[in-house]
Fold this sequence. Notes:
By secondary structure, this protein is α/β, with parallel strands linked by helices. It has five helices and five strands; from the N terminus they run βαβαβαβαβα.
Amino acid sequence: MQIYFCGSIRGGRQDVEVYQRIVKKLQCFGRVLTEHVSHSALSERGEDAVLDGDKAIHDRDMEWLNISDVIVAEVTQPSLGVGYELGRAVAMNKRILCLFRPSSGRVLSAMIRGADDGSEGCVFKVRDYAEEEIEGILEEYFGELTKK
C-alpha cells in the first residue's frame, strides 16, 4: 500500500515529534511516500535548498499523491500546503484520514471537519485524538481498510 502523509512544513514544525510517531506506525501498513515530512532536520524553510525549487516539490508531491492508495494528514498545525494536498486528494477521490488534537487549543477548519459527513462509506474521515491514542487509531483505520 502506498501512503501519502501530510503534515506542516512551512506552516510550522511544532508537531514534528508527533509526525515521527505517525510515520513510524504508518510504515507497518505500507510504503510512506512522504516520510521526509517527519524528519526533524527539515526546517520551516522546507526542501528548497535540496531540490530544484518549489515547482519540483509541487510536481513530485502531486505524482506521489496520484499514486497513493490512502492519505493520512495531521491537521492540528494549520498549513496551506496540507489544505491544498487534501483538496487535490478529494478531487482524485482518494481515501483520506485527518488527525486533529483538540488539546492544542486550536479549532479545526470547518472545510476539513465538514468534509467528513459521518457516514459509514465516507472516504474522508476526521478523527480527534490525544497523543497516546495515535497508534490505536491508525491500527483501527487500516484494519477497516484491509477488510474492504
